[in-house]
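Hi D.,

Good news: the full-assembly prediction came through. Inputs first.
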Amino acid sequence: MNIYQRLYNTDIGYSFFNSKVAIFSFLLFLLIVFSSLFAEFVSPYDPFNPLNVSLMDAFIPPVWTEEGDVRFILGTDQQGRDMLSTIIYGSRISLIVGFASIAFAMIVGLFLGITAGYIGGKYEVIVMRLTDVQLTIPSILMALLVDGIARAIISKSMHDEMAIYVLIFAIGISEWPQFARVTRASTLVEKNKEYVAASKIIGLSSIYIMFKHILPNILRPVLVIATIGLALAIIAESTLSFLGVGVPPTTPSLGTLIRFGNNFLFSGEWWITFFPAIFLIILALSINLLGDWMRDALNPKLKKR
Amino acid sequence: MLNYFFKRLFQASLVMLIISFVSFSLFNFVGDPVNNMVGQEASDERREEIRDKLGINDPIYIQFYNFVENIVQGNFGISYQLKRPVSELISERMPATLELVFVSAILAISVGVFLGVYTGIHRDRFLSKVILVVSLAGVSLPTFIIGIMLIYLFSVILGVLPSFGRGQVVDLGFWTTGFLTISGLKALILPSVTLSLFQMTYIIRLVRAEMMEILQTDYIKFAKARGIAQNIINYRYALKNGLIPVITITGINIGTLIAFSIITETVFQWPGMGSLFINAVYFVDIPIMSAYMILVAFIFVMINFIVDIAYYFIDPRIRLREEKE
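Then the structure:
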């Protein structure tokens, strides 16, 4: 059997290959990830190399309009940079921040969730109250506050270098309660099962049981939250960058591009803000559709008999 | 009842205390407040004198006590950047934000509940499916992009609605309102639609799920078996229980709207608290940041508190559980 057949024979694989929406959104997402990963080879120009950029080329509309230029398919921005290239490079920043902050949120949430569920007692109460309190605060507000506090602590000269890490931390810290909630609930179910009792009897340490035996069994719901969370994180990043408190302008993300383009909306240069916005929507929508499919596919209650 | 009330009140105060401590530490441990007040040339004696006067040499708990005392009296200090009392700045800008949030909340809840009930009852109709697909797309649309699109469509292309500001406002002395002039009302349309859209899609999905669940319950089946008309079952029996979560939604909704108003206010250059806050973050204006933080936390805690109390009166199950304990 080749890999394809083996994948097809699993539950998830079967559901995946029979869902047109899932396949389509996954391919779309993969395309975006790969093009941003290999931006150097995929994008027509390196928009951040001054040699490639000429102010003479500024504000050229997309190729299908009358004043379009074949060299720039989606037109150019105020500095004469190729829009398609800046979008590909920008999506790289957006994806890096998105993936990193979700990974961060997942690690924090998983750790607190599993330990809270397994250890229980006062510790569990404290962790769960903390998640409750944080869940009442919208994550974008949380991220803004953390970002603001970090800005106050870090000196101005360090700011641009640290901005991306601050952003990852701020978004990650605003998303972890979702993970903690789900892992705790699953851990509570798992810890009463026989294999956990057996591990205890043969004298394995609690840490070993939690992270070696329970963790692999509760990863399914975590995967769903991580997928939907990735879309939320990417939107949060672009929102913060749009508000001007995200990544520095020297390494623009999709949100930064939209922020700059927004200034030219009234003078008629709609493409500078329009294309990054459309790209961001497609990215978020493809992840959301994938997450929607995954939630149904991994939910045993919805399995067709 | 009193027990329940005090338990909630205690939780609310605890959250407020933690938030004020965070913003207190922000004041105290970030930068030297004396440096923000005197020039480079000030002598060490002068600095020490100011320190004593500001109470920085007091023990931490006394400083914290003074800080909380000031806040309760509405004294949030003076903005570093604008050199004016923060309480003045915020009270100037509060009406703009609250009016925006008020209109958006009404829009989101009324349209959201209506469409949610409709799609929940008529789940197989074509229109329901269209509404659901659109609402899924709505979740993927960041608020600021909705705002930009609306501006482009209605201000740039059609030129019928203003794209920034509040229009003409009427000053009532303690409150400036945009409700009384035509340009003020026109200016409200785009920002409030932008702000409410995301919440609306969320409410549609929640109410729909709730209605569908209730229509499966035994008392509805029994009503059907008795031969009661479907319309009466839908709108008199099911709707009553279907609207219970709307109370929680309203609470969460208003909190979320205040948070998201930061984005909407930036897109539409709306002169509210959110744009004040974003500017403060940008220029690291700590007094404004901490005042906004405390104020928003206070609004959040109050809303949660009111929702909890409202639940006690509306949902008999909570009352029963409390009495058992």
